[in-house]
């Protein structure tokens, strides 16, 4: 462990060794801070739990439980502990909390008649000591396997901080590894070109381009890099803490992933190249800043937002320095020169970042705000008449181009729509699942009717058309009644074809009963709320368009 004095200038003075390992097994990481994911940076570190659930989780330091959240998405079951030194730690994807807290939660769930909840707890109602058992690990919420998601946040800014900078016991002597670089023509929008993707080769202590010196047909370049970090004894790759871009020994751009403001989290789609991720499956992190990107991770940028000027035709040396949070470093060196002429593309309908852009036709309305775009696009759309749907099929630009803000999309209804279907409209949207937030990609979203048009906010380009949804969710019991005297629980699978399950309510003999949701499965585990004897359980489930299913189960416990 480095003493504070050994940190170089500019390092944050976060407390070292104040937080302990929240597990009692050595820390091995499945995911790191600020890794790029569609629509968000990963905001914590993912600590492996030996592929098991129910591993004890301990308070990383003294404090009190200030918040608990329960959801089938995101953090799943999560505890927030506020510490007296100005930080809050978060533990996510948990199964159960410690008994007193679990009891408190259950009481609140029955009071509010809601399994999912977000409870703020008064200071010191649940005080904890450093190392006190607070929960059992799991894989609840938006998790693909058992692990503990751990965050450290600042109480003053609310920002999440890089957990690797607090001296947790992590052995890390491995340097980041560079795989490939992307070279863009900076005179063109990054969305209107295919960058040159150049594989890198390990050479001596650093990396260089496999194909030697790079001859560019553009005098102005942006550089992106595919790079990953590793810690000892783990094959999982993590994000790179710091990157610096030099041209002929002069610093041009530098990034540092020290903290993330949740309000800026979606700018990951601009920080890294979303379009190339969609096309090639790989994130290239940009050593440039796009005009519509307000992310605050750039510690240095030249006056051209990281653009490299090689217009003089001479050979130039490019160097990229990579550094992880434990000061392990790697370097990429290569040569570039301008050797050609750019062909200038023309566009008759350019949409610009930083301003409102509009598509308004007889059948479509789409007027963005000033934040919607990160870089300019040559806007394209088609409207195809369809007998199958209530509107034209709109091809709205290209789903591979990211949007920062959502925009109200209006589609004109141009087929006879019975009055009683006006509140059953949906936007049908066919798109690759990777671009959608959450775990359950949907075919559609509810749309509202207004004067012959269907409206809904959308946050993705792609194709849209209007359908109707009159089909309620399908409810499938996962046990056979009526004798449940040997069963531990009652379970249902509930799915909705067009939209999502908006509401699920269970009543046992007329009183609300708490079902836990995991994905599409809803489970009630027998407890004091269901005594031995005969019972009637009634489930109602509805979708975004209020299509409702009612299901009754008479059983004996
Ligand atoms: Zn995580």
TrEMBL record:
Domain of life (superkingdom): Bacteria
Molecular function (Gene Ontology), one example: metalloendopeptidase activity
Occurrences of domain M23ase beta-sheet core (ranges): 41-109, 128-156
Pfam families to which the protein is assigned, alphabetical: Peptidase_M23
Protein name: Peptidase M23-like protein
Protein's organism: Taibaiella chishuiensis
């Amino acid at each position: 462990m480095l003493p504070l004095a050994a940190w170089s200038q500019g390092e944050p003075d976060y407390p070292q060794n104040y937080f302990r390992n929240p597990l009692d097994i050595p820390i091995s990481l499945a995911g790191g801070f600020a890794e790029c994911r569609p629509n968000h940076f990963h905001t914590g570190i993912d600590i492996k739990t030996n592929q098991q659930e129910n591993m004890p989780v301990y308070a990383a330091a003294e404090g009190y439980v200030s918040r608990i959240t329960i959801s089938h998405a995101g953090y799943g079951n999560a505890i927030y502990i506020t510490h007296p030194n100005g930080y809050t730690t978060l533990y996510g994807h948990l199964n159960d909390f410690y008994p007193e807290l679990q009891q408190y939660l259950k009481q609140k769930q029955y009071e509010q008649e809601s399994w999912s909840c977000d409870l703020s707890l008064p200071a010191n109602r649940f005080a904890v000591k450093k190392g006190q058992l607070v929960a059992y690990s799991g894989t609840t919420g938006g998790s693909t396997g058992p692990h503990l998601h751990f965050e450290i946040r600042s109480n003053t800014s609310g920002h999440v901080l890089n957990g690797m900078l607090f001296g947790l016991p992590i052995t890390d002597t491995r340097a980041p590894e560079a795989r490939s670089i992307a070279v863009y023509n900076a005179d063109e929008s990054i969305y209107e070109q295919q960058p040159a993707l150049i594989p890198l080769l390990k050479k001596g202590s650093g990396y260089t381009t496999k194909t030697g010196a790079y001859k560019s047909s553009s005098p102005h370049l942006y550089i992106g890099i595919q790079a990953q970090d590793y810690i000892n004894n783990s094959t999982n790759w993590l994000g790179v803490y710091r990157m610096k871009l030099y041209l002929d020994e002069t610093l041009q751009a530098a990034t540092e992933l020290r903290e993330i403001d949740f309000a800026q989290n979606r700018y990951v789609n601009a920080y890294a190249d979303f379009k190339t991720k969609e096309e090639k499956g790989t994130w290239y992190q940009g050593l440039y800043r796009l005009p519509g990107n307000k992310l605050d991770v750039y510690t240095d940028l030249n006056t051209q937002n990281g653009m490299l000027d090689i217009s003089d035709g001479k050979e130039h040396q490019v160097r990229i320095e990579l550094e992880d949070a434990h000061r392990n470093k790697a370097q990429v060196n290569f040569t570039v020169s301008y050797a050609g002429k750019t062909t200038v593309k023309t566009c008759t309908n350019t949409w610009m970042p930083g301003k409102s852009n509009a598509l308004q036709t007889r059948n479509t309305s789409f007027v963005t705000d000033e934040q919607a775009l990160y870089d300019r696009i040559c806007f394209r759309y088609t409207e195809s008449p369809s007998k199958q749907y209530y509107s034209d099929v709109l091809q709205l630009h290209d789903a591979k181009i990211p949007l920062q803000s959502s925009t109200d999309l209006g589609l004109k209804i141009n087929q006879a729509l019975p009055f009683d279907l006006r509140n059953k409209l949906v936007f049908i949207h066919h798109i690759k699942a990777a671009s959608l937030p959450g775990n359950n990609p949907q075919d559609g979203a509810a749309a509202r009717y207004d004067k012959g048009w269907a409206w809904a906010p959308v946050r993705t380009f792609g194709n849209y058309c209007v359908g109707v949804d009159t089909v309620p969710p399908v409810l499938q019991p996962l046990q056979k009644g009526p004798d449940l005297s040997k069963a531990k629980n009652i379970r249902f699978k509930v799915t909705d074809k067009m939209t999502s399950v908006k509401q699920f309510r269970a009543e046992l003999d007329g009183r609300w009963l708490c079902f836990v949701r995991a994905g599409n499965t809803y489970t009630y585990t027998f407890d004091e709320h269901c005594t031995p004897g005969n019972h009637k359980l009634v489930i109602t489930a509805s979708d975004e368009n209020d299509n409702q299913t009612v299901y009754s189960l008479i059983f004996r416990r």
